[in-house]
Amino acid sequence: MKIRVITTGGTIDKVYFDATSEYEIGEPTVPHVFREAAVGVEWELQPLLRKDSLEMTEADRVTIREACEAAGETAILITHGTDTMSDTAESLIGIEGKTIVLTGALAPARFRVTDAIFNLGLALGAVQSKPPGVYLAMNGTVFEAGKVRKNKEAGRFEATGL
């Protein structure tokens, strides 16, 4: 199985620029994380966007959907900012014959203390084991698209009970 990894930006890829005291989205961190974890599954990186998810538009979601539909792989892992990840996941529902898993991080992957590595590992396992459909892999749980939301106060994702 070959996995398509599509990166769209978000906190997972943010870099802190001390001179300006600001964060900007940098190069995708997935290759570094996968290399350090000695990931043995075949995968291909497709950097698609470099956006904070709060800046994500419906046109961006169409671009992501088109990339998923055009991918030759049936397993697709997408890194995405957490604030609108649920919205993007819902926009991908209905793509036939593909398992699509979105993940991200609440702290940049380049930080010493981050959830990025754990979330990427969870997403990598989910994209290989779940049946076709769209999922979010965050906080140790794999959620079905359309049935999850980000609880900003608690700093985690939770099922909506739909």
TrEMBL record:
InterPro entries: Asp/glu_Ase-like_sf, Asparaginase/glutaminase-like, Asparaginase/glutaminase_AS2, L-asparaginase_N, L-asparaginase_N_sf. Gene3D superfamilies: L-asparaginase, N-terminal domain (3.40.50.1170). Residues 2-152 form the L-asparaginase N-terminal domain. It comes from the Bacteria. The active site is at 82. This is Asparaginase. It comes from Haloferula helveola. The gene is aspG.
